[in-house]
Write a structure and sequence with these properties.
This protein has about 170 residues and is mainly alpha-helical. Among the domains are: about 40 residues, no CATH class; about 70 residues, no CATH class. It has a two-stranded antiparallel ribbon. Strand 1 and strand 2 form a beta hairpin. The longest helix is centred in the middle third of the chain and has 35 residues. The protein is rod-shaped.
Amino acid sequence: MTRKFAPAEVQVAEEKLTLAASDFTEVKDHPQVQVRARLALSLTREDRSRSQAYEDAVRAERLRHAQERDRLTYLRATVLAEPALARTWWLEQQRDQLAALTWQQFNDKVLPSVADADDAHARAVQIAEVLAEVVEQLGDDAGRHKRFLETTRWVLREMGWAAAADRLPAE
C-alpha cells in the first residue's frame, strides 16, 4: 500500500495506513478478538538524507527550468523581436567561433542566418560585399578602376546623390 508514496510523503503514507487499520477487525480463527492499529512510519537518518537530497535536486531543476523559460521568453520578446538587436546578440553568442571563419564563410553562412532581407542594414552590407568583390576583381588594372569609378560616379549623380559621388576616391 505504501509503495506508491515517495519517501518525502511518509506522513501521507502513515495516514493512509492508519485509516486502513483504524476500524476494529476480527482476528481469523478468533471471532471474539478484535483489533485495530495505530501505525507510525519513519525513515532512517540515511533515507531521510537521501530523500532530502533528491527533493533539493528536483527543486533546483524546476528552478533552472523556470529561469530558462523566463530567459527564453525575454529573449523572444525583446532581443529577437528587432533584427539589428537579434544580429548583435547572435554574433555575441558566436564570438569564439567567428574568429576562425574567413570573410567568405562569414558572408555565406553567418549573414544569411542573421540578416533580414528587408532590413536596410542587411541590404547595405550585401551591397558593400558586392562592391568589395568587384574592386577585388578589378585587380591592378588602372584602366578598369578608372572606368568603374567614372560609372559609379555617374550613377550616383543621376540618382541625385552628388555628395556621395564626391566621396569616391580619385582615379
